[in-house]
Amino acid sequence: MTGPRRGGLAGLVGPDGLWESVERMVSFGPRLPGSPAHHRHIDDLDVRLRRAGLEVTRHPVPLARWLADDWSLRVVDARGVSATVPAGSYRPYSGETSARGVTATVVDVGAGGAADYRGRPMAGAIVLADAPVARLRAEVLTDLTDLTDLADAVEPPDARTRLAAEDYSRVWLGVPPPPDLALARRHGAVAMIAILDLPPLLAAGQYTPHQQPYAGLPTLHVDREQGARLRALLALGPLEATVVLTARRDDATVDYLLARLPAPAAAAAGTYGDVLVATHTDGQNAVEENGGPALLALAERLAHRPQARRGRGTLFLFSPAHMIADAATVKPDAWLRAHPRLRASLAMALVAEHLGAMGWDERGGTAPYGPTGRSEPVVVAVGHSDRLRRLAVDEMRAGGLARAVVLPPAGDGLYGEGTFPYRLGLPTVEFISGPAYLLQVGPGDQLDKLDRALLHRHTVFLVHLLDRMLALPAPGP
Prior knowledge:
By secondary structure, the chain is an alpha/beta fold. Helix content is 28%, strand content 26%. It has 2 domains: 15-63 and 251-471, Aminopeptidase (3-Layer(aba) Sandwich); 70-134 and 173-249, Glucose Oxidase, domain 1, CATH 3.50.30.
């Protein structure tokens, strides 16, 4: 199915220019939903898209905002010795305290199931609970591959065997689910300390779980080493802790950004429909979410192409609402339903997230956390279209997209932001990876785990895939 690549790479920014866009994004700070850094990033994309010649509109949506300001953990053991315990992070939208924090006796509930609370004096206590991370292998990706029609949906073909041996323990997967804050509240707890089963370097700054509703129970995360320390102190006798988690919680707004490149007159007069190209603007670091810089590069390149050679119209959609629960804002599928004319104009979608990531892990807990020397596995998920799936596999082969797997939908979703156009019935291709550090906030913004050349190669894959989607002669599966 390999065909000519329309327009080559003319007009596409080079590796250094794309890298500068990512550096510009992280210079604003972590783009947590509704934060000043998030707004600055949206403003910057707006300016740059307009400068490239696109028609840009902004669409505010409500946001139940929660932004942590400060957090800390101190304990006093049975001997009366006071100590500060490093808290690697906080649980987003968990709850908040005053600047003085909450002080109470620590009660260890272990796994934190319903049975673990029975018979324990929980009223007014601070709960200590495990937050395990399942030990998985990357074969979980290839196990999801439907090989009925395409036996070559893994690139390179021998990657299936290699992935079977690679660590894919990921806290962002939420497997098993994190401790139940509502359960702890029902038993009278006033705060929680959750032990992430991660080493200190990986536990620090983990913004997880990243889409939970507000819980009303301030919760801090400690790494496995500090968790063992706390349990050793509990073995000496009663342990008192002071949990501080101050946060701003209010009703705010944040903007969807829509940038349009019109279709040629002939296509607009027919029934071709436009291609939706989407990502999200909120994120924690240089990987989550660098879809914005990548889409900007695609938009600038297309804007330089004469309108008559674009094939279809293109709508670039930048969602502001990924790192937050559905009930706290307006997700892209609901937003598109609220704009029926826009939705009716769309024929298919291409979604891009987390480009250029290199692998870092701890070999399933058998080695220190560090680089693997390999690129992070990439998922190219396709829904509602056998034609797009064949096209994605073909382009993966033609472009040498390494360590990539083409996947079908999973339940009612298509992974990441691709879930939303997929749920609307649009033929959708989603490009995404999920490294262990995906949600980490901290110094360096994870730039050391992003590869400049790989970031550009992934963007080139999107360029060629988008070109072929724009050149498709008619809508349909």
